[in-house]
Design goal:
single chain; about 120 residues; mainly alpha; 6 helices; extended
Length: about 120
């Protein structure tokens, strides 16, 4: 029964995000707004991590199953995106390179700023 209440908290924030996104006509998906609100609620201790921990762990452990419908959707609409396959691959590769570079720079900044310089 506990996991149902934990899952209810997560869904509640997702629904609030969807309502805000739709109601305010925002270009940001409601699920993203909901997760940001959940993060803020955890950060400001409106809810405690123990109140959503088990359900969150379950969702993370089963993330591959949750992405399966997106993959099926891509395959079922392949005829619509087939003529753009090389642009999609280029954009995906560039996004990966940019993400790796940004993560590297941020990690170096945090390490030097907060942990000191460990160069020998």
């Amino acid at each position: 029964m506990k996991i149902y209440f934990q899952f209810m908290y997560i869904l509640l924030f997702s629904i609030i995000g969807e309502v805000l996104s739709t109601g305010l006509n925002l270009p940001i998906p409601g699920s993203i707004i909901g997760m940001v609100l959940l993060f803020l609620a955890l950060k400001f201790r409106i809810i405690r991590l123990r109140q959503i921990y088990d359900a969150g762990q379950f969702l993370i452990e089963n993330m591959t199953i949750l992405f399966l419908p997106a993959g099926v959707g891509i395959m079922s609409h392949w005829d619509a995106i087939a003529k753009y396959w090389w642009q999609i691959i280029v954009i995906t590769v560039l996004a990966i390179v940019v993400n790796i570079a940004v993560i590297g720079f941020v990690t170096q900044f945090v390490k030097h700023r907060f942990e000191g310089d460990y160069r020998k």
